[in-house]
């Protein structure tokens, strides 16, 4: 029997207790970043996964390529169902899997992959609270080296099939309706303004800034519930919340925190500022 999840988050102790369990699949979704604002570039963290270390048994999940749509002109556009399904199959995901995702940063990439899984109806997925940094700093086991074998593929009867995409994403038109008030929503910027640089087009009008760092405590773990409620208080009572950032990654941490608090209508602006600024410059 696979481990049963009771929250969108699992602790390092939970993972340590269940590591090696049948049908538990641990994914490292790390991405490394250089530059700020319009000069940002993103790089695979596969080398770090193999040579710096990872949670034993973890498989590297490539958010830059496999779990993003190609040829959109924007980084990290969410994949369609067929592409997502193929990427999940390649990692060994089955209908029976319990998936735990982490990254080696502040949690934005693991939250992004968690949100993608949820958007296709896969609910047996959680984020490792505090990620690899917390795991490593607690002295828990770390493996160095590439996988000696390919991830086990699911049998035909257990093969994962992506469900119909759920309304967990916002596009530019949805954001514009929030801006003009025709379809109200609280707009939340999850990126640290310092990471956006000084020379960029304007942010989305009406934005409330609640950065990822505002939601994290020690060891990059999410704040305890009372502190999390205080941090998100400016938008917590909004009927709908749309989160965004540079490329739709940090925004998924805010979406995760809101989900942990029980908010039932949260969307992530997939194009985020990469699209918003592109359209602003074009016009």
Polypeptide structure, described:
With 283 residues, the protein is an alpha/beta fold. It folds into two domains: 9-158, Oxidized Rhodanese, domain 1; 169-282, Rhodanese-like domain (Oxidized Rhodanese, domain 1, 3-Layer(aba) Sandwich). The protein is 30% helix and 15% strand. It is built from ten helices and twelve strands. The protein has helices at residues 12-18, 46-51, 81-91, 108-119, 131-137, 172-180, 225-231, 233-236, 250-260, 272-282; strands at residues 9-10, 24-28, 31-34, 41-44, 59-60, 98-102, 125-128, 169-170, 186-189, 207-209, 241-244, 266-269. The strands form three sheets. A five-stranded parallel beta sheet has the order 1-7-6-2-5. It has a five-stranded parallel beta sheet with strand order 8-12-11-9-10. A two-stranded antiparallel sheet has the order 3-4.
Task: Give the helices and strands, then pairings.
Elements: E1 9-10, H1 12-18, E2 24-28, E3 31-34, E4 41-44, H2 46-51, E5 59-60, H3 81-91, E6 98-102, H4 108-119, E7 125-128, H5 131-137, E8 169-170, H6 172-180, E9 186-189, E10 207-209, H7 225-231, H8 233-236, E11 241-244, H9 250-260, E12 266-269, H10 272-282
Parallel strand pairs: 1-7, 2-5, 2-6, 6-7, 8-12, 9-10, 9-11, 11-12
Antiparallel strand pairs: 3-4
Helix pairs in contact: 4-9
